[in-house]
Amino acid sequence: MTEVLTGRCLCGAVRYQCGAPVIPPCFCHCESCRRASGSHVVAWATVARETFRTSGPVRSFASSPPVLRQFCEQCGTPLTYWNEGSPGTIDIAIATLDRPEALEPVDHVWMEDALSWDRPNDGRPQYGQSR
Prior knowledge:
Blueprint: E1 5-8, E2 15-18, E3 26-28, H1 31-37, E4 42-48, E5 53-55, E6 58-64, E7 67-72, E8 78-83, E9 89-93, E10 107-109
Parallel strand pairs: 3-10
Antiparallel strand pairs: 1-2, 2-5, 3-4, 4-9, 6-7, 7-8, 8-9
C-alpha cells in the first residue's frame, strides 16, 4: 500500500485507514444509500478490502443482500458499503476521510433512483444504474 488514507466517525470512537482507491470515486444516488445516510447522495471511494483496517466500536448491518454496511455504534456515522459480489473491495464514505477533499468523485451513479429535485449539473457523467 503506497498511499494511506485515514478517517473517522463523527464522535471519534471509530478510526480507520485504507489504501488508495482502485477505481475512480463516484456519487451514488440510489435509494439504499440515501436511506442509510439520510442524505440525497453519498460520495464513495472504492479501495482494496485487504487494506481497510478499523479500530473502535463498529457495527454492521445487512441493508439489502448481498450488501453489508458498517457504521459507528456510538454515533451512527455510516462508514462503509461492502457487496459480497465484489469481495476484494470495500467502499468508504469519502466525507468520513480526514482529508475528504483529496478524493473527488468523477461521476454520478444510480440516477434512476435520484430524487426529482436532485439533478446535478456539474458536467460529470451520469448513469441510470452503475457504470
